[in-house]
Every structure is written in C-alpha cells, then in structure tokens.
Amino acid sequence: MNYEDFTVGQEYQQTIRITQDQINAFAQVSGDHNPLHTDPEFARKSIFGKTIAHGMYGLSLISAALGTHFPGFGTIYMGQEAKFLKPIFIDESVRIELRVKELQPEKKRMLIATTIIKENGEIAIDGEARVQYNPDLFGAGSSPA
Q1: CA dist., res. 65 & res. 70, Å (int)
Q2: What proportion of the chain, given as a percentage, has pLDDT over 70?
Q3: Which of 76, 90, 120, 127 would be 82's cystine partner, CB 3.0–4.6 Å?
Q4: Hey, where are the domains in the chain?
Q5: pLDDT of residue 51
Q6: What is the dihedral of CA 45, 47, 49, 53, to 10 degrees?
C-alpha cells in the first residue's frame, strides 16, 4: 500500500496463540529469564498461578504486525506508549488490534492505536505507536523476497 491509501479509522487485526516455546525463545534472546515466564512450578506459586508472557513480548507482537502487515514493509517504528493491564498466559490466544488514529501526510507519519486483547475479551496491553511509513525509502515500494 501507499501512504495515501491509509485513512483515519482503518483497522488491522491478527490472532496469535502464545506458547511456552515462544516465551523461552524470547527469554533467550532478551536475557530476561524471570521464572514467572520460564518456570511453571515457580509461576504456579505466584499471584498469577501459572507462567505468563513477558510484557515486552506482547509489544514485540505489535512491532511485528506494524513492520510486516499494517502498515507493513517500509514502516519505521518511532515510538510506543503502552499500559500493561492484564497478564498474557501461556497457551492463550490474543488478538492484536491496530487502528489509524492520526495521519501526518507531510512527513508520512501515523499515530496508531495498539491493543492486545485476551481470548476472554480483557485488554492485556493498550497504547499507541508513532510510525513513519514510506516503502519507497526501502527499494521503490517492493517488499523483501
């Protein structure tokens, strides 16, 4: 898509199932080995009662959706405000919802509402991202092979 194809209110949704393998891989890459995320026995004794995803893993799902789907290839992620409202549990499906809140055509920037909703309907993460979208800067609008 071209920047001019986006409109205020336009939305994107994606559902992802969270697995322990994903969380273990994120712990390995990030260095965050908090046992709340990686040790089911430890987590069972916590206030959550079971293992939970890293909050930053949830934000990484938003980053992935922004960079690969909406707006997509050509997105520069400039900032994110986020509130972590509910834990995301292992083996839970979450829905990533993105919605264009504001367009700044002169700089090809967008303000996008970013929300992760748990399978029970509760909001896990709520916030907004500021992005610049210009696929022409990355090779004449073509996506990578």
Answers
A1: 6
A2: 95
A3: 127
A4: 9-138
A5: 96
A6: -110
Can you read off the two tokens belonging to residue 13?
């949704």
Model pTM?
Answer: 0.89
How far from 60 is each of 13, 40, 102, CA to CA, in Å? 15, 22, 22
Would you say 58 and 123 are in contact if contact means Cβ atoms under 8 Å apart?
A: no
Please name the fold of domain 9-138. Answer: Thiol Ester Dehydrase; Chain A (3.10.129)
Residue 121, CA distances (Å) to 8, 23, 82, 97, 129 in order? 24, 22, 18, 12, 22
Question: What does the block give as tokens for 39?
Answer: 């040790």
3-state secondary structure of 76: strand
pLDDT at 139: 66
